[in-house]
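can u pls check wat happens w/ flavin mononucleotide
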Amino acid sequence: MSARPLVLGIAGSPREGGNSDRLLDAALQAAREAGAETRLLAARDVGMTPCTGCNSCSATGECVLADGADVYDAIDAADAIIVSSPVYFAGVPAGLKALFDRMQPYWARTYELGLPRPPRRPGGAILVRGGGDPYGFAGAEATTRSVLAVLGIDVLEIVLVEGADAPADVEREPGALVRARQLGAAVASASSERTNGGS
Ligand SMILES: Cc1cc2nc3c(=O)[nH]c(=O)nc-3n(C[C@H](O)[C@H](O)[C@H](O)COP(=O)(O)O)c2cc1C
């Protein structure tokens, strides 16, 4: 019998039920329909404290801060990861950025300690923005790609949704929900192939 891959969704918005949450819900729903199990981790709920730059992880490969064990466990257990976030001042919201920065131990293990890299896993991201400033998605996309690379994620797609500002605006953009669903299904299918050895 085939094992069901576990797709982890990381929600980046401090606003529960907003556009990026709705898009992530659509992606995870499609992943379930494609046979995956899903888990949702919201940065606003885990409230990771920011990296202090102490560089202890450069020596040990572990973070010295007391919080975050559940987040590291969830990331390690996932067969695939999808991040969904609004653009905030051309980057990602502070809570998600704190979570991203706390991924430094994975970087340290690979690039400073020479430990085996995390297994390659499929994934992607969804970024949504109101469109009120001229700086676009580039900053948030680069930050997200950077952390996904360190986590060993092969990015299938970054879904970019522009012009959604009020919390339910994406509901008036069915194309955006369709693209989010397509990403969820593609990630589930790619992780299923890897989990089940291509069978
Ligand atoms: C603090 C803050 C900063 C924002 N910065 C940007 C920005 O730089 N560019 C942009 O297009 N939209 C920006 N927005 C608009 C959000 O990206 C938009 O409202 C988005 O739909 C919020 O997603 P959510 O509903 O998932 O929270 C900002 C909103 C807030 C509250």
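Residues 5 and 36 are 5 Å apart (CA to CA).
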